[in-house]
């Protein structure tokens, strides 16, 4: 999660919403990213989506079985759906997102028995650090 937080800090410094993501397989980092919506002018350029794209390129296929995604903030519905579609095994996230969370806060796409794939979920890892970078970013944005 420390690596994901480092990615979130990069986003923060670029005036992007500070969310970072790291994809791991067999204890090896295979992808890492941060939000780039503003820089790329792309509403799909979330940290999770970019990490998924990098991981599939590195592995040479769309199935990310045996992979774990570490992300600082609970994924939104788009990212949660992409995690299910890409067959990621586990999601580990730092802080909940009470406004857009789709891994337990508002809805739970990643663990829904209605889909053909479910992810294991672990949350609250470095929660204060993950939450505080978001709070700081939005406090500064309002000022």
UniProtKB/TrEMBL annotation:
Binds 1 zinc ion per subunit. PROSITE patterns: CYT_DCMP_DEAMINASES_1, CYT_DCMP_DEAMINASES_2. SUPFAM superfamilies: Cytidine deaminase-like. Residues 1-106 form the CMP/dCMP-type deaminase domain. GO terms for molecular function: tRNA-specific adenosine-34 deaminase activity; zinc ion binding. Its cofactor is Zn(2+). One of its GO terms (biological process) is tRNA wobble adenosine to inosine editing. The active site is at residue 48. Zn(2+) binds at residues 46, 76, 79. The keyword Zinc applies. InterPro entries: APOBEC/CMP_deaminase_Zn-bd, CMP_dCMP_dom, Cytidine_deaminase-like, MafB19-deam, tRNA_aden_deaminase. It comes from the Bacteria. It catalyses: adenosine(34) in tRNA + H2O + H(+) = inosine(34) in tRNA + NH4(+). Catalyzes the deamination of adenosine to inosine at the wobble position 34 of tRNA(Arg2). Belongs to the cytidine and deoxycytidylate deaminase family. ADAT2 subfamily. Homodimer. This is tRNA-specific adenosine deaminase. It comes from Selenihalanaerobacter shriftii. The gene is tadA.
């Amino acid at each position: 999660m420390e690596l994901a937080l480092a990615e979130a800090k990069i986003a923060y410094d670029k005036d992007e919403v500070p969310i970072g993501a790291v994809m791991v397989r067999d204890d090896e980092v295979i992808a890492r990213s941060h939000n780039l919506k503003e820089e790329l002018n792309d509403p799909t350029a979330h940290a999770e989506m970019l990490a998924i794209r990098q991981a599939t390129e590195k592995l040479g296929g769309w199935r990310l079985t045996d992979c774990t995604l570490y992300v600082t903030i609970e994924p939104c519905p788009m990212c949660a759906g992409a995690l299910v579609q890409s067959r990621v095994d586990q999601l580990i996230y730092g802080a909940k997102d009470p406004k857009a969370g789709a891994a337990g806060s508002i809805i739970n796409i990643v663990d829904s028995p209605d889909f053909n794939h479910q992810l294991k979920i672990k949350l609250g890892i470095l929660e204060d650090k993950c939450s505080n970078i978001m709070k700081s970013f939005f406090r500064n944005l309002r000022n």
